[in-house]
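seq as requested:
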Amino acid sequence: MIPELRVSDIMTRHVISVGPETTLAAIAKVMIDNDIGCVLVMEENKPLGIITERDIVKAVSRKQNPLKAKAKDIMSSPLITIKPDATISEAARKMAKRKIERLPVMLNDKLVGIVTTRDIIKVSPEADEIIKEYIKIRIGEYEAEAGRVETLEGVCEMCGNYSDNLKEVNGKLLCEECREGEK
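struct tokens:
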């Protein structure tokens, strides 16, 4: 029997962080410059919270000034974390249960990496079903919040390919190519 992969096998070890006083505008620039979807908020090498692209959009929609709003004002806290020796299935279940897409990886109260749904999808067909259910839940939330259909990333339920442009069609998450074939 092949042992299941651990979080430490797939996590990103270099995690980009900002301080609690960093402005929203500066955080957005860090995310763009590093082509990432989140940053950790750290103080004296201790993680305090996480800021995602969605957090930034929410802050701007609430009319928070990007030049004045600080990381400490918009971060999600306390952090939901996982240990590096956890299985990727455990990580996927935790993400789905908590409705999050990223888990900081902690060992002895020290940040050692971060694991994302994208990392898991790339390596684990076993976790695919868990992630699909999570994505379906999120589609419903997005539609309810925004009053429109949002695209998500994940595995197309028709062709099995990874896509960052999934939409629900007749109860299935489909990539653009498969959606066009359904017409």
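The first strand starts at residue 17 and ends at 18.
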